[in-house]
Amino acid sequence: MGVKERVGKTSDTRVNEEKIEKDTINEKISSLTYHTESAAEEFLTTNQGTRINDNQNSLKAGERGPTLLEDFLLREKITHFDHERIPERVVHARGAAAHGYFQVYESMAKYTKAKFLTDPSEKTPVFVRFSTVAGSRGSSDLARDVRGFAVKFYTKEGNYDLVGNNMPVFFIQDAIKFPDFVHAVKPEPHNEIPQASSAHDTFWDFISLAPESMHMIMWLMSDRAIPRSFRMIEGFGVHTFRLINEDGESVFVKFHWKPLLGVHSVVWEEAQMISGKDPDFHRRDLWEAIEKGAFPEWELGVQIVPEEDEHKYEFDLLDPTKIIPEELVPVQRIGKMTLNRNPDNFFAETEQVAFHPGNVVPGIDFTNDPLLQGRLFSYIDTQLLRLGGPNFHEIPINRPIAPVHNNQRDGHMRQTINRGKASYQPDTIKGGYPIQAKAAEGGFTSYTERIEVNKIRGKSRSFFDHFSQAALFYNSQSDVEKKHLTDALSFELGKVERVEIRQRMVGLLTQVDETLATNVADALGLPVPRQPEYPMNHIIPADGDPKEYQPVKVKQSIKKSEALSMANTIKNTIKTRQIAILAADGVDEASISQMKSALEAEGAQTAIIAPKLGYIKSATGKEIKVDQSFLTASSVLFDAVYVPGGAKSSASLKENAKALQFIYEAYRHYKAIAMDDDSGLLKASYPGNKMLSDTLKETDLAAKGIIVNAHAKGATSNAKDFIKAIAQHRFWNR
Ligand code: HDD
């Protein structure tokens, strides 16, 4: 019997083969990156290719005897296993990634010569890794944290990496402070507590001594730090970069990613619960959406600032703690990115991918942002350690699709077998090739920038306004968002043990907003100081004059910016939203099937949740398959809840503590709820809640996202109202 007959194909292998065959867009990289181990048709071998006959028993002196050193099968297997782990990323250790493509809408040749931004017919393959920052590889997805949003474009002119975050600013202005910042936010070194959380003394100690962080702190304390999904976050390149066109002209640019599903978050209590119920919530969400064909999409946005406007604004374009308000420079949406394929192997792709802000292509260039300048060193350096040597660009996921020819040679794990005698340039032995490319041939030329300055350790006065944009962010939030931000600060600082750190933070908050500072101080049982007090001598150079380092306030032209509030995001789709249908024996089968198909027609996904797995029996005796039981499902993992009709089913849910808890949590987390036949279920789920105990009119309840007794109206109208409510995401008016 041949191998094929003995083994048969596993479904996994089939799926992979189909994927690789079908994948036309990624074909270019697939051919380079896949060593196709079609498991179904090959023999098990050692790494030397020797076929293995017994993978179950080690070689022993007698069946009960000691294992022999001679056993090369055992030694090879164990040795490889012993070396399976590599250092995790020092920041952004936990992540999830996907393949896809990017396509520009119209040529951007006016601004840049980068080919992937000038040819609308070109689909450029991308690999995108999302991440949290502070936690270790095994930490929860739902930590309050910044999310990394790193995109590798495999362009024909080489790899371009846009290594951004879901927040448009950063904590510090100069890379020299990065190691201190990261030491402060990571778990405290004596006991490695807390994991994946900024709510501890060292983080807030550092922040309270870094007034430039206050704008970023507003973002971090907002709901942006607890996203509903990676698919629903914005992305930002943070720094100002340059675009260069064919004529060598430069403009400044800020990059944005705008998710087509809108920007949505969970609430803090939910985030904490999800961390227990499903720490892989975001990873799973991305993976499953792509598996189901609901491909996440983002538009690439640019804010373009002409060279001559460099000094036009009340902030410095080179300061990474500042945004350019969209009211000043609108975001032009220039192309779309679609993620359409999950990685085949987490380690080979998501773990080994190496991003670097210094990977640019002709047409894109850097600015003198001092944070960016430091990053240009850090990323290569860290990959050398993490990926074990200088040849990490040869790891399949990191290989460009553009051909690579140079005289770099050797080193750990070299894959390329370079032929020939001469490995230097200039040479005549191999005819002078590879040769340098003229700019017209795609050779990278750095933008010629005139700099006439003193060499100096210091920073520009234009970097000293730390609070104006923090206030802009705060003032742009809705009342609910302001409340969440206040609660988040109260929570985080409430976990800080040293009173003097809390006090310093309240002092800094007074510079952002008096009410914010007063409310946080109240929660912490602290007085509100007139002005912030911190030991200036610690945060300025040893010989610096404290007077010269006082923050300044520059008059702002923009007081409020719509784009900063998630309240203004897209709320017109329920695509990929997860809807729980709670049911038990005696349920009305028609109301389930009608609602299910109405929701699914809009792109939502449904799951029937019942007291136990298996099947439930409808009122007419029909068997309905259960997707999850109350034991394994949880309200926090869903976007909305539907309870179909059927008196017996409702009565049994009313007796089921877990069903009641499910509805209670959906209510508390402001999610849309629909019920065909309430029969007191809602009231029972939240005894003592005033709103539910008052007999509110249906329309009042509907305004709060609760659609009741819709059966009377017929299932279709119920579904319509419910769909509208789910698209609203949350009902903060409860
Ligand atoms: Fe960084 C990883 C984003 C400042 C040093 N960074 C890393 C990743 C993202 C960012 C998304 C994960 C990439 C991946 O998925 O593999 N980093 C940012 C942004 C910053 C920033 C948006 C500010 C605008 N980073 C920053 C500074 C330094 C670093 C100032 C050091 C001077 N970052 C690193 C690093 C990491 C990294 C140590 C860790 C793992 C890695 O690079 O590959 O080099």
UniProtKB/TrEMBL annotation:
GO terms for biological process: hydrogen peroxide catabolic process; response to oxidative stress. One of its GO terms (molecular function) is heme binding. Keywords: Heme, Hydrogen peroxide, Iron, Metal-binding, Oxidoreductase, Peroxidase. The keyword NAD does not apply. Residues 45-433 form the Catalase core domain. Its cofactor is heme. GO terms for cellular component: cytosol. It is an enzyme of class 1 (oxidoreductase). Its EC number is 1.11.1.6. SMART domains: Catalase. Signal peptide: none annotated. Pfam families: Catalase, Catalase-rel, Catalase_C. It catalyses: 2 H2O2 = O2 + 2 H2O. PROSITE patterns: CATALASE_1, CATALASE_2, CATALASE_3. Belongs to the catalase family. NCBIfam families: PRK11249.1 (NF008422). PANTHER family: CATALASE, CATALASE-B. This is Catalase.
